[in-house]
Design a protein that fits this description.
Layout: E1 3-8, H1 13-16, H2 22-28, H3 38-47, E2 50-56, E3 58-60, E4 63-66, H4 68-77, E5 82-86, H5 93-103, E6 109-113, H6 116-119, H7 129-138, E7 142-145, H8 160-170, E8 176-179, H9 186-195, E9 199-202, H10 213-220, E10 227-228, H11 238-242, H12 252-266
Parallel strand pairs: 1-2, 2-5, 5-6, 6-7, 7-8, 8-9, 9-10
Antiparallel strand pairs: 3-4
Helix pairs in contact: 5-7
Length: 273
């Protein structure tokens, strides 16, 4: 069995052109004229033996950047290889809740993602709370970003304590997946996974050779079964993200949990995963 990538997206010209993408455009050589297609995304997955990618929709204060409809159309290209993470408009919580109830079925759309820095709202803001309740009712994870931001936006909103801790205290049934590893607040991240059984971390936006040593130590110990593989593709390709995986020294059990076992369990992915 290959890997499951829990954070990818098929970008469009609309999101690539955002001013806060300037740093990522510079680092990755992305441009509005070089946005990867669905076919190129699948080719990159094949090159790294990634069987399934969870494709993220994006919505911000200015409107949809990658809409739920766009992600649904992307899934249609390869329904055995893609699942979706729906987005929400935090300014219209009830409309968003209705959208999630209609869209998130646990089969094609298997979770919800909202990005705090994009809204300039910490995850304990009241506008998220109807979304959290909907995720609990639907039985799907809420996925977010933790740690500093590569885009030119504030990083403070990605600090796990107190913002995300408040959410985990208020919603003990909510499954939360914090993406982008959580640097520089690794200690806060790992302590929350020990304290809260429904909190998980993914390694998107970090290639394996860039994992902080304390995070690798955590993966080999109490973090087994709490960490999932992610890329944030196309910012990092699956092949680049996994190139130095062997150097981490994970045993077979830890490696399998990291690459696919934890994601398959948390997102309740079917036999095709």
């Amino acid at each position: 069995m290959g890997a499951i990538d829990v954070w990818g997206q098929v970008l469009n010209e609309r999101i690539v052109a955002m001013p806060w993408m300037e740093s990522l455009r510079r680092w990755t050589k992305l441009s509005e004229a070089s946005v990867p297609t669905v076919a190129q995304t699948l080719k990159a997955m094949d090159a790294a033996d990634v069987e399934i990618t969870l494709l993220s929709a994006w919505h911000g204060p200015g409107g949809p950047l990658i809409s739920n409809d766009e992600v649904s159309a992307q899934i249609d290209h390869a329904p055995d290889r893609f699942r979706g993470l729906a987005t929400v408009d935090l300014r219209r919580p009830m409309e968003s809740v209705r959208e999630l109830r209609a869209r998130v079925d646990g089969e094609r759309f298997v979770g919800v993602r909202a990005i705090p820095w994009l809204w300039d709202l910490p995850p304990n803001d009241r506008r998220y709370y109807p979304i959290y309740a909907a995720c609990v009712d639907l039985g799907v994870p809420f996925c977010t970003q933790i740690g500093h931001t590569g885009p030119l936006m504030r990083s403070e909103l990605g600090r796990p304590i107190p913002y995300l801790e408040d959410v985990l205290l208020d919603f003990p049934e909510l499954v939360v997946v914090g993406g982008h590893l959580g640097f520089p607040w690794i200690g806060e991240v790992t302590s929350l996974t020990v304290k809260f059984p429904n909190f998980y971390v993914d390694t998107s936006a970090y290639a394996a050779h860039r994992f902080p040593p304390e995070f690798v130590h955590y993966m080999k110990g109490v973090g087994r079964g709490r960490v999932m593989f992610g890329t944030n593709s196309p910012m990092i390709s699956p092949s680049a993200a996994l190139k130095h995986l062997d150097a981490l020294g994970l045993d077979d059990t830890h490696r399998e949990a990291f690459l696919f076992g934890t994601a398959k369990r948390v997102f309740k992915l079917g036999p095709s995963a």
